[in-house]
Design brief:
By secondary structure, the chain is α+β, with helices and mostly antiparallel strands. The chain has one domain: Alpha-D-phosphohexomutase, C-terminal domain (TATA-Binding Protein). It contains 2 helices and 3 strands.
């Protein structure tokens, strides 16, 4: 069985104010990268103390759009949860 053509690519750069948050978020997303989003693949790359990249490849435009929405949603959810946990009741 041959590998499907993954000809579409996108790179999302995630940058946060504090390096510790970038490292935490990077680690939080690693289990999600291990799972495969349908018809797409992802790779996390550390690119600095306050940022990292999510490199996506997919086989069609619908798949790359869905993968981008999925990963951006996970980033947003993780940051919102962390902010909520830090704020007083």
């Amino acid at each position: 069985m041959s590998e499907p053509d993954l000809g579409w690519t996108a790179t999302l750069t995630v940058r946060v104010a504090e390096g510790a948050w970038a490292e935490w978020l990077f680690r939080a997303l690693q289990p999600e990268v291990a799972r495969e989003v349908p018809r797409a693949r992802a790779e996390l790359r550390s690119t600095g103390s306050d940022r990292f990249e999510i490199a996506l490849t997919a086989r069609d435009t619908g798949s790359i759009r869905a993968a981008m929405n999925t990963y951006l949603g996970w980033v947003d959810l993780a940051l919102a949860t962390a902010a909520r946990a830090r704020s007083p009741p």
